[in-house]
């Protein structure tokens, strides 16, 4: 195998794809190295362990959503309806073009009961998502109802991502976004 130069980000991107498709436990350092065109030992120049790659992968996706999707909820230049529509559009762009579902949702089920570090990062992601939606809903609904709606939407979208991947059908997933838009 030819050795090539790579970056931490490229390794994370390949690891994310593998974790989503194979699962965390079914993916080895050798699988990640192979996907990156590296020998296994080369990965250790960038990461100490598979757990470190796992945590960094979770943080990578979390930061992507914070910067590109959740931040929309706090944009003072947009009306609430524009915010919701844009959040749904950007979320759709991500999940409709991403095989294997939601990395954080997948790993919440696979490893969070055994790995407290993973669990904390995953909880931060879902809390940030709920808070972004709450920030919009609170302008139309009372606080407790806004919290409930935010959590329900996150649960609905995660369930619909699972069903979309299971049945190879995006129609239910797309209906969840439509429902969210109709709330504002």
From TrEMBL:
InterPro entries: Homeodomain-like_sf, HTH_TetR, Tet_transcr_reg_TetR-rel_C_sf, YxaF_TetR_C. Residues 28-47 bind DNA. Keywords: DNA-binding, Transcription, Transcription regulation. GO terms for molecular function: DNA binding. The keyword rRNA-binding does not apply. Residues 5-65 form the HTH tetR-type domain. PANTHER family: TRANSCRIPTIONAL REGULATORY PROTEIN. This is Transcriptional regulator, TetR/AcrR family.
